[in-house]
Amino acid sequence: MSNQFRAIVANEQDGKTVGTLQTLTLSDLADEDVLVDVAYSTVNYKDGLAVTGTAAICRHTPLICGIDLAGVVRESRDPAWQPGDRVLVNGYGLSENHGGGYSQVQRVKGSFLVRVPEPFSLAQAMAIGTAGYTAMLSVNAIRDHGITPADGPVVVSGAGGGVGSVAIMLLAKLGFSVAAVTGRPELGDYLKSIGASEIVAREALAKDAKPLEKDRWAAGIDNVGASTLATMLAQTRYEGLVAACGLAGGVGLPTSVMPFILRGVTLRGIDSVQAAMPRRLRAWQDLAALIDPAALAAATEVRPLADVPALAKAILAGQVKGRVVIDVNA
């Protein structure tokens, strides 16, 4: 087997960290317990920030980008993992402090690995990826709060993206009525095909909200932040919950205490990077039970590793629909 492989590596260029396609050798990888032959990765908003250098995601350089990977164990010093095991990693600082999944080979800590659930191929695991895993964490937060389909509709912002698309699939499978918020009206048919009951224009939430507005939603999943999250909170029904998992629209939150003390609304932050292993395992078990393979396939396209720099720019510009799987060996 060749000692050389291809990877998207972040380096300093003109005072900015930028990811480009390079050829590396095994000696360029960190000395971690498990050597994985990577098959697939994916493209998330955070990957777009890292590869373009728009935000300081990579804490040091050179560093292989990609916050997700799925592949097969080649070698292992960790007794929990054996050659031939199908594994995945979401987060845990990949592309931040540790080498990531935009690589044909990667060494990772054994404690980062999750066994790929039996129903999924490696490609399907990355069609879900961090975006789908984050969506499942968000949906579980709603379920754990005791909210049921009978309580009313759930609103999902950034509906055309990865988290939003998978969240819609999951909520629809569980029987919820889903209001999909998007700034791309041309995605209406796509969003309804994966389970949305209603399409809401982005401008209906991306506005200066009153402290309280008409209560519309039993719960919400927000990928945007800023005024969209503030409006979602102001429109959430009594004792509802909003799961906040993204910041594509900004890090500010122009709200008041009114939704919290007059309607008992809960704002639940969702972190997928350092989530405890029991929550990860539960999320992947639930994904295996709930994901419709046909709906997932309809929301997914596969692209080669060389396309990552262009895709990174596209996802930041809001031009990516659904999920993009990266075949690192294509």
3D architecture notes:
By secondary structure, the protein is α/β, with parallel strands linked by helices. The chain has two domains: 4-116 and 299-327, Alpha-Beta Complex (Quinone Oxidoreductase, Chain A, domain 1), CATH 3.90.180.10; 130-269, 3-Layer(aba) Sandwich (Rossmann fold). It is 28% helix and 28% strand. The protein has helices spanning 45-52, 122-144, 162-173, 188-193, 226-234, 258-262, 277-290, 293-298, 308-316, and strands spanning 4-13, 16-25, 34-42, 63-64, 68-76, 86-90, 105-108, 114-115, 154-156, 178-182, 198-201, 217-222, 236-244, 266-269, 300-304, 323-327. The strands form three sheets. Strands 3, 5, 6, 7, 8, 15 and 16 form a seven-stranded mixed beta sheet that branches. Strands 11-10-9-12-13-14 form a six-stranded parallel beta sheet, sandwiched between helices. A three-stranded antiparallel beta sheet has the order 2-1-4. α5 links the parallel β12 and β13. The longest helix has 23 residues, at 122-144. The chain starts with a strand and ends with a strand. The mean pLDDT is 96.
General shape: globular
Determine the N-to-C terminus distance. 17 Å
Beta percentage is 25-35%
CATH architecture of the largest domain: Alpha-Beta Complex
Order of helices and strands: EEEHEEEEEHEHEHEEHEHEHHEHE
Relative helix content:
25-40%
Q: Quick check: average pLDDT?
A: 96
Which structural class matches the secondary elements?
A: alpha/beta
By CATH's scheme, which homologous superfamily of the largest domain applies? Medium-chain alcohol dehydrogenases, catalytic domain
Supply the CATH class of the largest domain. Answer: Alpha Beta
Summarize the biggest pleated sheet. 7 strands, mixed
DSSP strand count: 16
Distinct helical segment count: 9
CATH topology of the largest domain: Quinone Oxidoreductase, Chain A, domain 1
